[in-house]
Amino acid sequence: MIRVQDLQKAYGNVQALRGVSFDIAQGEIVGLLGPNGAGKTTIIKTITGFLQPDAGVVEVDGIDVMQDPRGVQARIGYLPENAPLYPELTVQATLQLAADLREIPEDAQLEKISRAVYAVGLEKHLTRPIGTLSKGFRQRVGLAQAILHQPPLLILDEPTVGLDPRQIVEIRGLIKSLAGQSTVLFSTHILPEVEALCDRVIILMNGEIRANARLDELAATGNAVVVLGERP
Ligand code: ATP
């Protein structure tokens, strides 16, 4: 589903990615784990076609993102870190706007919105303005936007950052249930998040991959903790 080959990216003299390569197969749920500044967002923005790498190849579902960014974006549901939402819009209006931006035909919008709303448990909140929702519920709206067009791949950038412990559990539960329908790549700096959700983890440090392994393999070597230092 994703092929990343020798990705390199610098911002001025900051080398954010130093030759990153990995593959993600259809149906996997993979955690991209690393501390602040490791390069997680840079990888995600490159896969989603919002950022041009200096070198390397990214393919999603066999499509080269540099050649056909819109084709790739049609296959991805993307939840950015701190997804921008208009506080005065209701949940319903927000999702309608997202459906328009996705160019979902009008006669299909109602069904797609209902499906997404149900999948993230927002049925009772459709008429509420975004500004009255808790951060956990706003994140549900972000997830609903991401899955509106039923993409085969979900990419979530630090989906639980800034949430309280109860909201974290709820959002993790939702990610797990969404993973039943899509391949999922999400970034995090929290090891237990990976342990709660993933088949496989890619550990990124300073723009380089330090480990790419199934969780049981890592646990056997204690590698994740060694790489990341102290357990958070
Ligand atoms: P975080 O968890 O803080 O978002 P991250 O792992 O997602 O971190 P990136 O945001 O990809 O890391 O950043 C990788 C490196 O590139 C960091 O050193 C960061 O300061 C730098 N960087 C990112 N965006 C820019 C930019 N627009 N201009 C300059 N440097 C940047």
Total DSSP E strands = 10
Instruction: Give the neighbour order of strands across the main sheet.
Output: 6-7-8-3-9-10
| Rg measurement, Å | 18 Å
Strand content: 25-35%
Pairing-aware structural class of the strands and helices?
Answer: alpha/beta
| Low-pLDDT stretches | none
The helix content, as a percent range, equals 25-40%
Total helical elements: 9
H/E element sequence: EEEHEEHEHHHEHEHEEHH
Termini separation: 31 Å
Mean of pLDDT: 92
Bound molecules: adenosine-5'-triphosphate
Oligomer: single chain
The best one-word shape is globular
Largest sheet: 6 strands, mixed
Description:
This protein is of the alpha/beta class. It contains 9 helices and 10 strands. It has helices at about 40-45, 70-75, 90-100, 105-120, 135-145, 165-180, 190-195, 215-220, 225-230, and strands spanning about 1-10, 15-25, 30-35, 55-60, 65, 75-80, 155, 185-190, 200-205, 210-215. The strands form 2 sheets. A 6-stranded mixed beta sheet has the order 6-7-8-3-9-10, sandwiched between helices. A 4-stranded antiparallel beta sheet has the order 2-1-4-5. Helix 3 crosses helix 4 (about 105-120), helix 4 (about 105-120) crosses helix 5 and helix 5 runs parallel beside helix 6. The chain is globular, with a radius of gyration of 18 Å. The two termini are about 30 Å apart. Bound molecules: adenosine-5'-triphosphate. Adenosine-5'-triphosphate binds near residues 11, 14, 38, 40 and 189. Keywords: ATP-binding, Nucleotide-binding, Transport. Belongs to the ABC transporter superfamily. This is ABC transporter domain-containing protein. GO terms for molecular function: ATP binding; ATP hydrolysis activity.
